[in-house]
Amino acid sequence: MSTNRAWRRLRTLSVTLLAAALVAAVAGPALAAPDADTAGAGVDRFGSCVAAQGKGQVLLLLDESRSLGQSDPQAARITAARYLTEQLASFAASTGADLDVAVSGFSDDYHSYLGWTKLESQSVGTVTSAIDQLRDQAQGQDTDYWLALDGARQTLAQKRPDDGAAQGCQMIAWFTDGQLDFTPRPGVTKPYAEGRTLDTEADREAMIQAAQQSICRSGGLADQLRSSGVVTVAIGLASEGTSASDFDLLRSISTGQKTPAGPCGDITQPAPGDFYLAKDIDDLLFAFDNLSTPGQPPLTQDTGACVIKVCDQAKHRFVLDRAVGSVSILAAADRAGLTPVLVAPNGVETRMAPGQAGTAEQGGVKLAYRFPTDKSVSIQMSNPDAQLWTGVWALVFVADSDEAAKTRSSIHITGDLRPVWSGKDTTTLHSGDTDIPMSFTVHNSAGATVDPSTLPGTASLSTSIVTRNGKTVPIGTDIPKGQITAPRELTLAGIDPGPATLRMTLAVTTAAAQDASGRTVPGTELSPTTVDLPVVIDPPVGYPTIGSRIDFGTIEGSGTATAALTVTGPGCVWLDTAEQTNFLATPDGSGELAVGSGASSQQNCVQVDEKQTGRLELTFTAPQAVNGTANGTVTVMVAPKDGSAQPLPIEVPFTVALQKPLDTADFAITLVVALVLGPLIPLLLLYLAKWYTARIPGHALRAEQFRVRLNGTAVVRDNGAPFAIGDRDFIALVPGLDGPTRRIDLGGVTLRTRIGRSPFGVGFVTASAPGMAGAAGRSGDSWGKTPDARLPLAVHNTWFVLHDPTGPENTATVVMLVGGDADRGRIDQLVREVSESLPRVLPALRTKARARLDDDAPAPRPGGDDNPFGGPGGTPSGGPGGTPSGGPGGTPSGGPGGTPSGGPGRTNPFGPASGSAQPPQNPFGPANSAPGGGPVPNGPFGSRAPGGAPPAGGNPFGPGAGGQPPSPPPAAPPRGGNPFQP
């Protein structure tokens, strides 16, 4: 790359970031009904995969472009994404599935906010905290679909199954408020448009075409994702000033449907994904809600509202029996102020005060409800063993006036049953075989077998084999519940060997029931539960069997990669080089990719004896260094070892990740140009833009500091009680957060924003205290040599640990930072994180901090021991009586130069500042003495002399040093002070 081009890139990026940091706008969303353009086939496919494999991954991919300041000023996307996370966690808990979630953002770049995290009750807070970080990140100048999808491709590739038996179950939940677009600015380039910049309006139009072409061409980026088995679900926010047509390309990418924007990709079956259009926050909630029970679509109803009291005509009814494991309801009215009422089968009503989250219980059925917006309510129902569970339930909205209102509901009734192939581990499927015995049964979410004939309602099972080319071989259709477990037979005559899918669909309708008035209400037809189980149809008996997939891993730069296909004898196996490799997807500019093997004919095939295993070695060649994924199939020939039958071809899918190496020359040129050949102003602008955006959001915050210790793997408070929150904790708000800020003082602990050494990326926050090392909560992230805890800019609902590396190894201080609107559930989530993570984080922090101490310790004196304090004679300090310092009053330093002993040497990072004779001001340890023997201030956690801070456990915002009277306490938090007391 030329130096002029490198300079243009750096200069343009500088101006871009600065402009993004300084531009903001405010507008309100338009109100409209939701518009679902697909029937949820993509989400259903993901759910069927998860039901079969028991695990899957969901990537939350959220727009960060600056247009969100106008289209979504209240951050509705954050509310909706948080709601989806919580609903997915409930789905995973009720079905027993393992779901991993990651959070990323995109605009004119792509970056991760949270890596893959298992979604469970203990981690929901971690995921939602990561989502919250995007609340104030709306400054990007582009809406770059290509960077979003390519970044998602790389993130999802990190969770590709290791065994290669199946692609895995992966879905992108992709939100944006606009169409593919760019902001013209000089010198900006994109990886999919080599040699093109964004200098002018004409360049902008050309860049849009280049991005769309790269995504939608045959084998392009869209096909790379689809051929990797990734389901893409896109949600577009059509606020005021945008129209549905603005999302034509987004719809084509996600669904594979041809729109006015044109076709996108060649792979359109099975359904690549879904698209939903939303026009306000409630639309967004319903759109995200469609993803919350994959494979089990919700029941949707639209009706009106009642006036003053519950009425029949406005009820959203549903019937439950013991085939149902849990119920999740999202309902909304078209105006605020209506009261939702849940009516139990016995007629008892549970009224939910608008805007006030709560819990209730009806006949043993547990209810939890909250209000995501002022017009919507979310309700969770659990405990199907309760006697009142079975029967007719209804949700109704009640208005206090006769003003007309419309209401809608999305009711997720999660079936507790799924079909299972009993012969999964004992039956081998061979091409050409007939009368293959097949048997099926039904399991509940706990994995226990359920006799389907005892179900109170109706049930039926349909099963079939679906081959790789889409051919369906039926096994049984609409088998009634009394015959589901009866033996059946499968015929594979004329079916080619290779990967296939066993599809099992269980349809259940709950039993009819009488409502409180005695009227019989028909049972509710639940969404069918489909399980797509990957299977392999082996060649006929006498032929060798082979693995189902080939994964070449990653090729960095141009070159080759090898992989082996397992072969089980008896037989002979080779790669059919006469058949062209079928590439389904390839990166831009990849050149003539090829798959080869030394075993390329029957004469030099891999021969394996009966019941023995061998390997067919394969080589993938990439002539060009590119970024992307290459997917396709190769034809492998199999034949009996004795040559008694004709060879058979088997199509085997393969995948390989292609990655450009770091262009060190490009990097060096850019660095030299920036630092030597050109003015430093653009580089300074980069840092200025990063500094400008590195601010802690100005939202209400509560902070509390806890002295804790580890008792084995248990976390206890300093009084020996298990770590928990008391009624007097989190009462006061942290002052100074009426707007964004770069610094917060928490009584001896300081939070500061940092931008780091790189001019790129986003800033972060460090938490520090004198004499202490720190690490962020669950992640254990730290920064600097001390080290200090490293937190995201959105510090709300996070925690960190501070530890004195010279003190006891099992003691520490946990600092919890809680949003002003956090409820008890959010606090309890953080408490669980502390209890689970601190036994891992604290030892790692101590090891890291002690290593720093060792690095800074003075060299041993001749003839002396390796005394880290530098005292003579092997004593810890050289002071009389083996005192740790030799200073007056037993202070730990007392020596000049800030060294721990008073001897020469490098400065201890946990001790006093250089040139000071004062002891370390550790705010968390026991009180120290000044050289004159008097007490010195000791921060908010230890005792101080009169006139200092209050004793441990006191208000961290209390009086300062010097005996000044305490300042008035901060104002009480909104909504009545302590949120954890009635």
Automatic annotation (TrEMBL):
Region entry Disordered, spans: 846-982
Extent of Gly residues compositional bias: 870-905
Membrane-traversing stretches: 667-689
Signal peptide: 1-32
Domain VWFA, residue spans: 57-291
Pfam assignment, any one: VWA_2
Keywords of this entry: Membrane, Signal, Transmembrane, Transmembrane helix
Protein name (record): VWA domain-containing protein
Species for this entry: Gordonia desulfuricans
